[in-house]
């Protein structure tokens, strides 16, 4: 389990980037972290694997305090960031994914097997000999995710990995991560500022100015329009239509349910 216990973190004295944060993610659980730009998402990501240490409070991963063993946390938590170009180390996709495994002293044959398996699973096997820089944005993120998954982490933190992608690639990456995490019992923290993306997620943590504002399912999070607006997060279009339909009176005329009226609700 990843456990944040009253965590505070500041880059500069007197200004908390993360303030009194409490939450838990169990193995196999898929949790979303939603917040606008500058709300503290990347800081939280870096706190999960000991890259940053709390000024106050504690972060535990499977009972290990990040202040005691940041290195053990790095082996348990895999993080992928927004810009894949910043994360590549190999000249080919194969080298890039194998690099992390070499660092873990995984023997060659096993490393080979993992690279084969994960690239097949993510649909990037045909790019093994290609340079990562030649790939599309979505494929690059798949390589970055493959590199982290090959290390077989217990938890995966994805920090806005789809922010630079088009909606179709975004959905594809989301679905892939969702099913692979489920198959392998990996706990996921899926970080985004795009509310549409996390509508299917069962537990969403909404943050603003480094503080947790609300935690709950889609309906709990997205039904409070005023709250979302106040923290700079948009209401998913599907939710506006859904709540309109739910609130409608039984005698609503067909005209009121026409496509153009519904579109006006967005
Ligand atoms: N390296 C840094 N040095 C100083 N301040 C930082 C640094 N990184 C982030 N911050 C500040 O911390 C706050 C949270 O930033 P961040 O965690 O990057 O938010 P998000 O990922 O949600 O956009 C912001 O006010 C940001 O300006
Ligand atoms: Mg960020």
Please, could you describe this protein's structure?
It contains 10 helices and 10 strands. The protein is globular. The longest helix is centred in the middle third of the chain and has 18 residues, at 167-184. It has helices spanning 41-48, 70-76, 93-103, 108-121, 137-149, 167-184, 218-222, 225-230, 237-247, 259-264, and strands at 2-12, 15-25, 30-34, 56-61, 64-65, 77-80, 155-159, 187-192, 203-208, 211-216. By secondary structure, the protein is an alpha/beta fold. The mean pLDDT is 93. The structure holds adenosine-5'-diphosphate and magnesium ion (MG). Adenosine-5'-diphosphate binds next to helix 1. The site of adenosine-5'-diphosphate has 10 residues, from helix 1.
Give the SSE string.
Answer: EEEHEEHEHHHEHEEEHHHH
How do the strands of the widest beta sheet line up side by side?
Answer: 6-7-8-3-9-10
Which ligands are bound?
adenosine-5'-diphosphate, magnesium ion
What CATH architecture of the largest domain would you give? Answer: 3-Layer(aba) Sandwich
What is CATH's topology name of the largest domain? Rossmann fold
Helix percentage range: 25-40%
Count the DSSP helices: 10
How much of the sequence lies in strands comes to 15-25%
Task: Tell me the number of strands.
Answer: 10
Q: Give the low-pLDDT segments.
A: none
Q: Quick check: average pLDDT? A: 93
CATH C-level name of the largest domain: Alpha Beta
Q: What is the assigned CATH homologous superfamily of the largest domain?
A: P-loop containing nucleotide triphosphate hydrolases
Structure class: alpha/beta
Compute the number of structural domains: 2
As a whole number of angstroms, the C-alpha radius of gyration is 20 Å
**Gap between N and C termini, in Å?**
38 Å
Overall, the morphology is globular
The major pleated sheet works out as: 6 strands, mixed
């Amino acid at each position: 389990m990843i456990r944040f216990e009253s965590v505070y973190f500041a880059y500069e004295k007197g200004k908390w980037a993360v303030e009194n944060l409490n939450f838990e993610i169990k193995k196999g659980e898929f949790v979303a972290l939603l917040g606008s730009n500058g709300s503290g998402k990347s800081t939280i990501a870096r706190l999960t694997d000991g890259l940053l240490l709390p000024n106050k409070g504690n972060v535990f991963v499977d009972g290990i305090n990040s202040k005691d063993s940041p290195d053990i946390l790095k082996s348990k938590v895999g993080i992928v960031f927004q810009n894949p170009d910043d994360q590549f180390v190999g000249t080919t996709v194969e080298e890039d994914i194998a690099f992390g495994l070499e660092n873990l002293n995984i023997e060659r044959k096993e490393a080979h097997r993992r690279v084969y398996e994960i690239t097949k699973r993510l649909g990037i096997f045909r790019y093994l000999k290609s340079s990562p820089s030649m790939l599309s944005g979505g494929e690059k993120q798949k390589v970055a995710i493959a590199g982290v998954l090959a290390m077989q982490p217990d938890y995966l933190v994805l920090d806005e990995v789809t922010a630079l992608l088009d909606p179709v690639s975004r959905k594809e990456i989301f679905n892939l991560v969702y099913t692979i995490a489920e198959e392998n019992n990996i706990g996921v923290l899926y970080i985004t500022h795009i509310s549409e993306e996390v509508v299917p997620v069962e537990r969403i943590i909404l943050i603003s100015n480094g503080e947790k504002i609300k935690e709950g399912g889609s309906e709990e999070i997205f039904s409070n329009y005023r709250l979302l607006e106040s923290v700079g997060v948009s209401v998913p279009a599907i939710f506006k239509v859904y709540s309109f339909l739910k609130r409608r009176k039984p005698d609503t005329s067909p005209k009121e349910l026409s496509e153009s009226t519904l579109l006006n609700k967005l």
